[in-house]
Amino acid sequence: MPFQLVGITPSSLSDEQWTCLPEIFQAGLSLLYVRQAESPELKQRLTSDVLAPYRDQIIVPFEVPRTALRLHWKEAVRLQAPPNSQAFSTSIHDISDWPLLREKVKLAFYSPVFPSISKPGHRPSQPLTEQIIAIQHIRRHFNALPALIGLGGIRVDNVRQVQDAGFGGAAVLGTLWENHDPVDVVHKLSQQII
User: What DSSP element (H or E) covers 184?
Assistant: First the structure.
């Protein structure tokens, strides 16, 4: 599977940011996790004709029946989910949780890889060199793992390090939305990925 570039939204998006979502996908974004609370207005935006070509690339933290939108379990939701239930993605903060997610999810967001841009003070519990060792160890001992998506502090100048570390993708929040031109950011990030 190719290295995936995943965008994560802040708790709300401006009208201008909603308008540029198709361009962000066209620029190379693989997936978008819309990290917002469920509301009728949000569901209407997500099911609009503008986003129709990208619906199967959108992840949300709530179910939207009869759509191609993908379900994300926040960590607390995952821990309370019935044993045989599944979602598309979830979040972890301890790399040792990764193999426990086999047959439960397709993607596991692991954070933070680097000091967070959007959450000041949120830092990794171990340096990237130790994360690499843990990833390699888990890959040697387990098959059929979900894609491990690095999150936290990922920028244009370090996204390649995430790929080289053995992650299956990189997720960006602050880098994407704290920039005046998120489409250009996705282009630049995509250019760094092999």
Answer: helix 182-192
Q: Which residues pair with 92 in a beta bridge?
A: 110
φ/ψ of residue 155, rounded to 5: -130, 175
**8 Å CB contact between 60 and 69:** yes
Domains of the chain (ranges; CATH) run 4-192 (3.20.20.70)
The answer to pTM > 0.90 is: yes
Bridge partners of 109, per DSSP, are: 91, 149
**Residue 8: strand pairing partners:** 33
Tokens 């569901």 sit on residue: 43
Q: pLDDT (tens digit, 0 to 9) for every residue of the chain, 194 residues total?
A: 799 999 999 999 999 999 999 999 999 999 999 999 999 999 999 998 999 999 999 999 999 888 899 999 998 899 899 988 999 999 999 999 999 999 999 999 999 999 888 777 888 888 999 999 999 999 999 999 999 999 999 999 999 999 999 999 999 999 999 999 999 999 999 999 98
Cα torsion angle, 63, 68, 72, 78, sign = positive
Measured from the Cβ of residue 13, the count of other Cβ atoms closer than 10 Å reads: 17
